[in-house]
Design a protein that fits this description.
The complex is a heterodimer of chains A (180) and B (148).
Chain A: H1 7-22, E1 29-33, H2 38-43, H3 58-63, H4 65-77, H5 82-100, H6 107-110, E2 112-116, H7 120-179
Antiparallel strand pairs in A: 1-2
Helix pairs in contact in A: 4-5
Chain B: H1 9-19, E1 34-36, E2 46-59, E3 66-78, H2 81-98, E4 100-106, E5 109-127, E6 134-146
Parallel strand pairs in B: 1-2
Antiparallel strand pairs in B: 2-3, 3-6, 4-5, 5-6
The chains are: A mainly alpha (180), B alpha+beta (148).
Amino acid sequence: MVEIAKIKSLTAKFKALEKKFTQGNVPSVMVGYTANYAIYVHERQAKHAPGKQWKFLEQPARQLGPTLVQIIVIALNNGVPLLEALYLAGLRLQKASQKLVPVKTGNLRASAFVARENELLTVAAESKKAFKANRKISLKAALKASKAKKATLKKARTKKAAQIKRAKIKKAKAKLRKTK
Amino acid sequence: MSSILTHSPADVVRRVLIALNLGSLPSTVGDWPIQVSNEPDYPDNLITITDTAGITNGRIQRTGETLEHKGISIQVRGVSHPIAWAKSDEIRVAIDEAIKNTSVTIASTSYMVYSLTRQSGPIILGREPGTDRYLHTINAIVALRQVN
């Protein structure tokens, strides 16, 4: 049977390194989108504008794997804590993903986030707030647009009525001239 | 050199699922036809497998061969939620437990599927707009090689 020599000491070294960088708890960073329809756009193959696609987060995450590792290693070598190094890699992934995400209104692209584990609740609350604010803005815009449309219609109707009135007067005058 | 694949990984996985009686070829009469890359509107109960980005695992220094797990996405469309769920769960179990060192042949070309590893899913996407059919998705990576 083949045995790896000094495997125990190697494992101990790795464990010590892990402890050094994580200080006991393994930190993590999450990259994602808070728009509730993000999963549907991500998982459903559909026709999108050139350069935009489904799997807009999964593909860069898989393709950028070595780059992300490199970012983390460089950051760690420069004395950056592991959590912050992961955050930097997360930002790089978010940037790559936002280039690929399909854009219709811009809401999905704008909902991208990178969060440290302890910030997730804040992100959720912020996204809820942003969604409410966006809805308020869009409702206001819709109301304004509807008012403007009504005003334009009213103007057009008044103009047409005036035109009809003028035509009627002209006709009546012509009839009067004829009878004279 | 990396092995060249005559058929796409999605096509190979389709044959594996057919061999496990989880679906049928669209040209034959079966309950669950399995399509590759395109998703026709008919029939309602349909499995679609699409190739996605894979994961590169580095190179073998001596031969220069690049090792890659190919990515696939399996989408199950069902006329109702229980029907779609049952099928997607059947596929999940097959991926997790049944597929290892499986050999398949497509038109005289043989492939060895070493493993099919589920990455996520079944993800429930809800109802398809306009038709109300239910959509479930499973993402996986596959390690395979063309034998001849």
